[in-house]
Amino acid sequence: MNSYPKQLYIALFLTQVLSIFGLRMVQTNLFNAIVELPFYAGILGTTLYLGSRYAFRNNKEALEIQKFPLAIGLALFIPTMMIESLFTALLLLGFFMLAAFNITLNSRKQISYVLGATFVIFLYAISNSFKSIFLFIAIAFVFAFIAVLVQEYYISRTHKEQKIDEKYSGLGIGISLVVLVLASLLYLFVPRLDAINLGFLYAGGNQFYEDQNLKDQAKFQKKEDMTPVQLPNKKQDSSSHPLEPTGTKISNALLLYVRSDTPVYLRGSVYDRLEGNQWVQTLYANNIIQLKEDHFKLSKDITQKDENRVTVFHTKDSPKNKIIYTPHSPSVLEFPGNIITRDAYSTLYAPKVIEDKSFYSTQVSLNKFDSRTILNTELHNKEAYLQIPDSVTPRLTTLAKEVTTQFNSPYEKAKALEKFLYTNYNYTLETVFHSYDGDILETFLFDKKYGHCEYFATSMTMMLRSIGVPSRLVTGYVASTYNPLTGYYEVRPINGHAWSEAWIEPFGWIMFEPTPGYNINQRSQETSPAKMIEGYLQELENSDIYESTIYGQIKQIIQTLREVFEKGFDFIHSNIFNLLGIIVLGLLISFIWYAISPFIWSKLSTIALQYVKIRYKGFNKQCQMFNVAQHHLRYYNLHRKESMTFEEYMNLLKIENIATEEERSSLVRHMNHACYGDKSKPYEKDLFESTLNNLVNLKRSRKHPLISYFSKLFS
Prior knowledge:
With 715 residues, this protein is α+β, with helices and mostly antiparallel strands. It folds into 4 domains: 6-189, no CATH class; 212-246 and 255-520, C8orf32 fold; 531-574, no CATH class; 583-696, Four Helix Bundle (Hemerythrin (Met), subunit A) (Up-down Bundle), CATH 1.20.120. 51% of the residues lie in helices and 14% in strands. The chain has 21 helices and 24 strands. A hairpin with a 2-residue loop joins strand 5 (273-275) and strand 6 (278-280). It starts with 5 loop residues before the first helix and ends with a helix.
């Protein structure tokens, strides 16, 4: 065997390019992966081409060439490790080793090694991908992968050289289609459980979070430092949260990916004082927590058997802050660092801004009261959570008392206020961009009765305080948009949310959701993926960001194509006779061309032959004249293939009854004499040239393709 068939090299090329492309898309983004694609494809394609040239020759030249990609990989290893990371450097070195291995592919074992390496790379990429578009890359990879396996199997069984039968090439495609169809049916219509996390990827990323100053402070931290104190004014450098509009458009950026068994609220900043139309923080505490092996117990009660683990992945568009987003009742935190801090509101912070690709996990204790999670902390500075600004009118207090008059316990009163707001007011994003004039709470509660989540949460918090129940406003995100294609909840800016927490004796802080439409339910594990995908797309379509997502863009493309086809059909229908006339005219012209083209082609070949006689001399002249004759015969599909000897070519002409035996023998003697210097037989110049003249004057009628097609169809 001189080399493997080209189909095998093409399939190997596709598997390698798709695996590297998928890996780069996971490490960077789709745009960067597309920009880098020509570089990786060029290197892999070149090395596979060299591998096809040097296969089974065992020469030293291939081994010498193999050293170049290895040298490049080793040269780039240390700089990449210093600039990027050790992991990135190892991947780059592995890529150049793969390219070097391509040059010496000369056994099934080596092909298996290369195929296995690309498969491992692709598995890593797909297991770390959050984007649905990766599904299309996976389909293409499966096609190429199965094509390699089928062709390799055929070679091993038949030991055929160079060329694979068409039926085996079709077999590879057929098997790929059958596998994909069956896999798609199983995936879409058979209910399935989520993949099990084996426990070694709960926290990580490209950054390890540490701070030596905080570690030094932790040595001298006293118990009283952990007790929140109220400052005269709002806390220095504290965040604030306005109720009024802060923008004109909601971004479509993906902020977080969340892996969880159920939809989950992610707790962020918490506020205790309303000043005008914004919430601020007035309590301060700096509880420094040192993590042991990236692990810390946040709650003493972690014995629940039905705990849920929530893993949060940050992206390049994540909020640029230090907040560690956790569920309402975290019991254990696993974080890629050795120290964190906790403020007066039990919000956790990293020692520095959390960067892209960082991820961490919290174990959520499902310690509940009346199906509500409880944040078990002590109540400090109760007065801060009962503060009501002077701008709040007595009408709010009167309304709160009217709603809760028939209830006795603080919890029942809080539930009554939650239900009142949830059922009597409407949720809208309109007020995010166009706020009310005048007092926001008064207008919301007694006039407009519609607004966004901050209006609902602020109203409930103030109403709770007006009847003596300590409460506060919490901001964060609701991870409820589950993408069944990736297995992750997707969090965008539109998922930003605000809700209330109330202090209920003797349990602790209990969360309340007064905003309509945010009563998240547990995701069913028995729903078929097809239904889940339909629900996911429906949820996106009902949001304001659908048109900006890949699904919205695909739908727009389909709608555009549909409009184009409809307009095209209308145009054809209204101009049917004109189009038929054009078709008939085109067919008539093509038939005329097929009738006269042999005469035109022969005339052109005769002119070319005369030009060669004048332009060239000696053996070169004779070779060029023969090439003109060959080119003329190509018009009748009688050209000489590269692998043909002159004798074999003459046998082809003999079968077609072209030229006499004497003329064909003259051509063979001449060309052997001109090309190889064979002087064993005499050479007749006049006979040779007259034979070529006869060949270029050959005129044969050609069947029109339509006539050939229909004759085969009805034969």
